[in-house]
UniProtKB/TrEMBL annotation:
<feature type="region of interest" description="Disordered">
    <location>
        <begin position="91"/>
        <end position="139"/>
    </location>
</feature>
<comment type="similarity">
    <text>Belongs to the SEC6 family.</text>
</comment>
<dbReference type="GO" id="GO:0051601">
    <property type="term" value="P:exocyst localization"/>
</dbReference>
<dbReference type="GO" id="GO:0000145">
    <property type="term" value="C:exocyst"/>
</dbReference>
<dbReference type="GO" id="GO:0006887">
    <property type="term" value="P:exocytosis"/>
</dbReference>
<dbReference type="Pfam" id="PF06046">
    <property type="entry name" value="Sec6"/>
</dbReference>
<dbReference type="InterPro" id="IPR010326">
    <property type="entry name" value="EXOC3/Sec6"/>
</dbReference>
<protein>
    <recommendedName>
        <fullName>Exocyst complex component 3-like protein 4</fullName>
    </recommendedName>
</protein>
<dbReference type="InterPro" id="IPR042532">
    <property type="entry name" value="EXOC3/Sec6_C"/>
</dbReference>
<keyword id="KW-0597">Phosphoprotein</keyword>
<dbReference type="GO" id="GO:0000149">
    <property type="term" value="F:SNARE binding"/>
</dbReference>
<feature type="region of interest" description="Disordered">
    <location>
        <begin position="1"/>
        <end position="75"/>
    </location>
</feature>
Length: 669
């Protein structure tokens, strides 16, 4: 079917309805091509579509290390730069087109399979992720890097981007960012995202050169059809305004309003026909976006003195049809977003299989997980918000549900992989922390239900981090409270492993690193006391005094080490010295005072623990009974004052098990 003709002057124009009927555009057959644009805009119908992205491989090239500058600086860009430069040279030599117009955008349309943002979804014009912070790249000759990429002036875009990269690395080396530790990360992310956009545009040119792709073509084909429809409406109405209206205005006939309503009715009819055949998330979005943001734009006609109507026109799509299209779109979107999270998980699994350590960005272990999720959520929410507030809210709910289901799957898959080590665990803790803080900040009132699964995942990774250390040092505690312990420094190997472990915590988000360090501190003190209360050898006389002194020295070494590492768990400092004082006290009546200090500092201590401590001294049955009765009185008073066990949520003795036959042992002394 031939394309509709434009309105001409003459007898045909006496019927506006007849002129409007010429807007019947050819039906869409087969598949439609995909657009690479991810967000809605006005007047996009006059341009040709980009064709997706070159997938995550292009993004990865901007995140590898360079040989000259520091790894965490130039490594973000260097490989991407070399690849893109070769691609640009080939594109320039082959005479690749500098300008290709774009059609109506489709959020997240891609050329094959489900897409994810940043590394997988379209990167053509994506700027920055939630929470990363966007800094505008400096324009050259009035054009920004994004504008140059959009206009497919790729070589100037690459040259300008390369200059920004070199300047950023130089500023980093000169300590410009010491007072703004996140400034480098934000600007580096902007540069990386623009490299991704450049790579995506090169991929689009390559695919256009090779020919149309059969997948995902439907959305861009529909977008192109609507672009042609919009062009015809504008050109015909411009001609009506120039040639027809003057002829009728002299006679007082409202020609402009008549033609305008006729064309509006014809467009509405054609759009309803297209809506019947629309399939899939991308096609439905194209229709909704064109109706809401292109045709519904006040400057749709392209001239400041022309508007669609001074009086309200009937809805372009009937309310029932509009509601159905939105409902169908959200149904497809839910499946699509779930598929995107599946792809994110697959990409993470491929990274784990590579057995490479995670990158270090601004001093922290980094995984692209949080950036991917931010981009996925932000892109679809922004696209939905361009249609309606209701659709935006629905999309937020869909993303929240999908992410809450994704987190346990991600956690399980990682713990079952061979990549469970300190750097990867630290990177995952950082990713969860970024998601928890940034999503709640950017979308307040929406993602609160994600707080619980994100905190749960973080705790799981922290516990697994601690388990690795515990497996290493647990055998070393068995040497404590032995005859060899009295004459050798058996604590130092334990503390050496603790210090080595703490070096990894330097690359973990500060709040989570402090929590983990305090848990390590508590673990060391708890295991030390567990060995003291269940000794393999019992000391008497001089050996007991030596053991008491040894415990005091060990307590000082433990406290100094963790203080140097930055632990804020000062409440642990009194535990070992109190037991050491009871063990070495020469004036037996003062043991009562030491017990009072111990119970007052650690109200989670139990009767069995007191019995085990008293058994170390062999004080005699009567004295032990008096001390035990006094201890029970103190424990009851502490329970009544504090309600239960540990004060301030601190738990130490409650997790220490002692022999159950201690009562019999005390009775037999």
């Amino acid at each position: 079917m031939s394309l509709p003709r434009t309105v001409t002057s003459g007898p045909e124009l006496h019927s506006p309805e007849g002129a409007a009927k010429k807007l019947q555009t050819p039906p869409v057959r087969g598949t439609w091509r995909a657009s690479s644009e991810g967000t809605p805009s006005t007047h996009r119908e006059d341009s040709w579509p980009g064709l997706g992205t070159l997938r995550r491989a292009f993004s990865r090239t901007s995140q590898q290390a360079s040989g000259q500058a520091p790894e965490e600086d130039v490594g973000l860009f260097q490989r991407s730069s070399r690849f893109l430069f070769r691609s640009l040279r080939r594109a320039q030599d082959d005479g690749s087109p500098a300008h290709q117009p774009q059609a109506t955008a489709v959020p997240g349309v891609m050329t094959q399979g489900p897409e994810v943002p940043s590394r997988v979804m379209d990167g053509g014009r994506r700027q920055s992720s939630a929470g990363v912070g966007r800094e505008e790249l400096e324009p050259e000759a009035g054009k920004s890097v994004a504008d140059l990429i959009t206009e497919r002036r790729l070589l100037p875009a690459f040259e300008q981007l390369r200059q920004l990269e070199v300047r950023l690395v130089a500023e980093k080396a000169s300590h410009t960012f010491e007072e703004d530790p996140t400034g480098f990360a934000r600007r580096a992310m902007d540069v990386c995202l623009h490299y991704d956009g450049l790579a995506a545009e090169i991929g689009a040119i390559v695919r256009e050169t090779l020919g149309p792709d059969a997948e995902a073509e439907g959305a861009s084909g529909l977008a192109q059809l609507l672009a042609e429809l919009g062009h015809l409406v504008r050109s015909d109405l411009h001609k009506v305004r120039r040639e027809v209206q003057p002829a009728y205005s002299a006679a007082g006939l409202p020609a402009w309003e008549a033609y305008l309503r006729a064309f509006h009715g014809a467009v509405a009819q054609r759009l309803q026909e297209l809506a019947q055949d629309a399939r899939g998330c991308e096609q439905l979005y194209v229709l909704l976006d064109w109706a809401a943001n292109v045709y519904g734009s006040p400057d749709f006609l392209g001239a400041p003195d022309l508007t669609l109507s001074t009086e309200p026109l009937p809805p372009l799509l009937a309310p029932a049809l509009w509601a159905r299209l939105q409902s169908d779109y959200t149904s497809f979107l839910e499946t699509k977003i779930t598929s995107c999270f599946d792809s994110i998980l697959q990409l993470e699994q491929s990274r784990w299989a590579d057995a490479k350590a995670p990158d270090v960005l601004q001093g922290l272990y980094h995984t692209p997980l949080s950036v991917d999720v931010h981009m996925l959520v932000a892109e679809h929410v922004k696209a939905a918000g361009a249609i309606s507030a209701e659709l935006e809210a629905t999309t937020l709910c869909i993303c929240t549900r999908a992410l809450s289901l994704f987190l346990p799957r991600f956690e399980k898959a990682f713990l079952e992989s061979k990549a469970v080590n300190e750097p990867h665990l630290g990177a995952n803790i950082n990713a969860c922390e970024e998601l928890r803080t940034h999503l709640l900040t950017r979308f307040p009132g929406t993602f609160e239900e994600l707080e619980k699964p994100l905190v749960a995942a973080t705790c799981t990774f922290q516990k697994r981090l601690l388990q690795g250390l515990q497996c290493d040092v647990q055998p070393l505690f068995r040497v404590l409270c032995t005859k060899a312990w009295l004459t050798q420094d058996v604590l130092q190997p334990i503390m050496d492993k603790v210090v080595a472990f703490a070096r990894h915590l330097e690359h973990v988000a500060p709040l989570r690193a402090q929590e983990t360090l305090q848990e390590v501190h508590r673990y060391v003190v708890r295991e030390y006391l567990a060995q003291v209360l269940s000794p393999r050898e019992r000391f008497r006389g001089e050996e007991r005094m030596t053991g008491s002194q040894k415990m005091g020295l060990d307590s000082q070494a433990i406290g100094d080490t963790f203080q140097g590492l930055g632990s804020e768990a000062t409440w642990l400092d009194q535990a070992i010295p109190c037991v050491a004082d009871i063990l070495g006290e020469t004036y037996k009546d003062d043991i009562r005072r030491h017990l009072e200090t111990l119970i007052g500092s650690y109200p989670d201590i139990r009767r069995d623990h007191v019995l085990a401590i008293l058994a170390l001294r062999r004080l005699g049955r009567r004295r032990n009974q008096r001390l035990l009765q006094h201890a029970q009185y103190l424990l009851r008073a502490a329970a009544e004052a504090g309600g239960s066990g540990a004060a301030g949520g601190h738990v130490l003795f409650e997790e220490i098990e002692v022999p159950t036959s201690m009562d019999l042992l005390i009775t037999c002394i």
